[in-house]
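Contributing new records

If you add data, match the layout below exactly. Sequence lines come first and carry their own label; structure lines follow with theirs. Keep one chain per record. Anything else will be rejected by the validation script.
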Amino acid sequence: MDLTGAKVLAKAGLLNPIRPDRLLGMALALARWGLTPATGYAAGAARHPDRVAIIDDEGSLTYRELDQRTDRLAGELRARGVLEGSAVGLLARNGRGFVEGSVAISKCGADVLYLNTGLGGTQLAEVLHREGADAVLHDAEFAELLAPSAPGKVMVTTEELSALAATSTREAPPKTGHASRLVILTSGTTGAPRGAARSRASIDDAASMLSRIPLRAAETTFIASPVFHAWGLGHLTMAMLLGSTVVLHKKFDAARVLQAVEEHEASALVVVPVMLDLLLKADPAGFDLQALRVIASSGSALPGVLATRVLDVFGPVLYNLYGSTEVAYAAVAGPEDLAADPHTAGRPPYGVTLRIVDAAGEDVPDGTPGRVFVGSGLAFAGYTDGTDKDRLGALVATGDLGVFGSEGRLTVLGRDDDMVVIGGENVYPGQVENALLGHPGVRECAVTAVPDETFGVSLVAHVVGEAEIEDLKARVRDGVARFAVPRVFTFVEALPRNATGKVLKRELA
């Protein structure tokens, strides 16, 4: 790590002196479990044992309590056949069941397969079979959904584990020879979700995130986004490093979230963009949110008009991260970036390489669209089915098209396979969506392409809201181009979305 990275960590409060005995405890945890969730809470128990680690619907747990409970749970899982190198699925909503399950699996030396709570039974069965899962930890509400996948697998509910955590007399298994691997599923917006094995995080990776999002040690973070997804899981991991208190609710309720932010004086709130609109509708002015310094958003595209509304209501606290399960983070737009250009994805953080290239892999000039490639310490190692993303040396393709502006900010134009050619002109559906969202009567929209006998391809706009079609056409004509105007406008009650808020365009198509 260079001087810049060290300054970032010092500003976050991560380089403060540590008592020798506590430092030894942290080192022993690292030696026993490697860079895993197990180490995160065991090290926290050594450094600040009485600090609250999580607050959920059932109450609170300190770092010491969470470490001791997961020791017992790991012993219970080992007794039920979860061995080193096993793959264990975890299907749980935000709460202690998810956190303790992750840590206990890691203490067994098993790999954690994070399952999307929005998947159907057929998809779950497919994923569990493909990933070779030997066991599944799950909230009781998913038992019936999982039943067809159960034969031959160890099935344990998180509710049962929570009860055992208080009564079991088992101890954690001895030091493992296998450092637990974390497998995160892709969002599955373009097909069946695939497993992406994430590289092990380092202190440099933490400095990268902290260089653009000003989180601080020993504060409180409310993670509203799903923790099974890379965005929520990344913040849970960051909280372990910072020694933060994490607040988790199983179900998202905007008013209840704002109440919890006020009650616990949370300094950071982690969301996906679709949650921001609901938070605005919940009348934030009715809550004391003075402690809130950061609203961190990611997981799907942030409409520029929504970014502006959030800044107007909450103040200069919005940070939007552009990335993916495969590349982790690529760029972050802070409040100043979003005020200057609400549509920007921002700039790459410390330690991240971001390039926009042409078909030959050569960098394109600023203002010229190209494919986005990213390199960081958290880039994935390839899909667990043996396939991979396109790579350019050490860089991984995001699958998006983007353009650098004159001030070095990135604008994402959309998926590289979404771009269409209409009458010889390149059209990016994302730009059309942004233009339509500027109409006050449009709450949500998505633009898809369909075959057209005259132009080869034409666009269809799926709109949630009320507006005159001619007004919408004028918005696109004036804001993008005449050839980008959708030929068909259809008004719908809602857009189909996955658990992280991404629009499932294949369902619209």
